[in-house]
Write the structure tokens for this entry.
Amino acid sequence: MQTGAPGLHVAIVMDGNGRWAAARGLLRSEGHRAGVDAVRRVVAAAPELGVGTLTVFALSSDNWRRPGPEIAALLALFEEYLLHESRACAEHGVQIRVIGRRDRIPPSLASAIQFAERATASARTIELRIAIDYSGRDAILRAACWMLSSLEVSQKEFARRLGEVTHGGRPSADVDLLIRTGGENRLSDFLLWECAYAEMVFTSKLWPDFGAKDLEAALHDFASRERRFGGLPAAAAGD
């Protein structure tokens, strides 16, 4: 089924790159590179499965604690992806948006982000949001501080402020389905406001092994659930 954007908002915590590499005797950086291939597979499959927005967790604010060489390799990989994939993304209707802080990343990466966002701005099939130096708590805190200057106090206004502080380009949108790979069952400070009513799927599959069939299975699971948003089940509501 092809719906194109707008459609479901799917968020993914891409966990397991390092363990995937270690199991094969490779450097962790090779695991991250294999993870980029998984991103390509999932982005290609997502529109046909009804996904209009895909948000992937690439680098958390807490990840700065990792060894310097690994962080340097990750930042270089992000820059390479943004510079080299933008044209193909634009041709296939993939709009790139990077969310998170931009004051702590290298200037060359900041420039690559601007380039990718401009190059894909008119794409409309799917929005790919890449979270780099992102923290849900930090985003909420900064948006709350900005609310002090607001004349309107509402969830709609807060979502708008949240979109501004994370460079989201528009009001922050609720997540329909959150997927986490790698066997861990937690949010890890990812899209805390947006995931208030998200359905969640946790899988032990490591991110570099995740593909179109895995995304389809997660969406099939999602479709079988009844989302009540605090209300009664459909059967009980009809009594």
